[in-house]
Amino acid sequence: MSLHDADRTALVAGGTGRLGAAIASRLRADGYAVVAAGRSDGDLRTRDGAHELVRNAVAELERLDLVVHAAGAGFVAVRLEEVTEELWDDAIAVTAKGTLFLAQAAAAPLRESKGTLVIVEDVASFQPWTSFPAHSAAKAAQAMLTRVLARALAPEVRVCGVAPGPVAVEAGQETRRAAETLLGRVGSPEDVADAVAYLATAGYVTGSTLVVDGGRLLESGRGPVP
């Protein structure tokens, strides 16, 4: 969809991954002109990279009504003793630093449009995943940033989170992961995209995280976490 045909505009950081691509596709279907950006478009690990990403998106779209942080790194299963500085830094850099730097860069255009920032979190922010210590810690920091940013950018900008459960499941893991949910099935990237689309238009919602996990958090008391 061209900019002139669109009612709204959106930047999806991490828009080339499975979740990000589904979000970008849903937003286009809803009438958005979308920039789906990957790391080559601006590295969220650095403040300059995040600002470059937003500058380029604004140059292409002319304004920003919605920004989605769907980028991630460091989702690697390791024992606590095996966590390296590289793994830790990778998880924190994209997930926590990237969220902050993207919000810094997008604050002015979002304030101008009275827009929305949606952050794709993870149910790992609510649970101590001992097999994913770096990822869990980074996601917990990101979830706090959702609330911090909601206060810092109000009242012009709404900031919301989406916390997926098992939606991007590796082949062969579907049955095991489905058993971890109350609904008895895994979700899909499109389920997350539906949540983002809702929050983008939920004008009285800010500082909240919408959990999209099929009841994974409630079911987790019956068995081990990852």
What descriptive keywords fit this protein?
7 helices; alpha/beta; single chain
Describe this structure in words.
The chain is of the alpha/beta class. 44% of the residues lie in helices and 14% in strands. The chain has a 6-stranded parallel β-sheet, sandwiched between helices. Helix 4 links the parallel strand 4 and strand 5. Helix 1 packs across helix 6, helix 2 packs parallel to helix 3 and helix 3 runs parallel beside helix 4. It is globular.
Assembly classification:
single chain
Number of strands: 6
- How much of the sequence is in beta strands? 5-15%
Termini separation: 41 Å
What is the radius of gyration? 17 Å
- The poorly predicted ranges are none
Per-chain topology:
Elements: E1 8-13, H1 18-29, E2 32-37, H2 47-61, E3 66-69, H3 85-113, E4 116-120, H4 133-153, E5 158-164, H5 174-178, H6 189-201, E6 209-212, H7 216-219
Parallel strand pairs: 1-2, 1-3, 3-4, 4-5, 5-6
Helix pairs in contact: 1-6, 2-3, 3-4
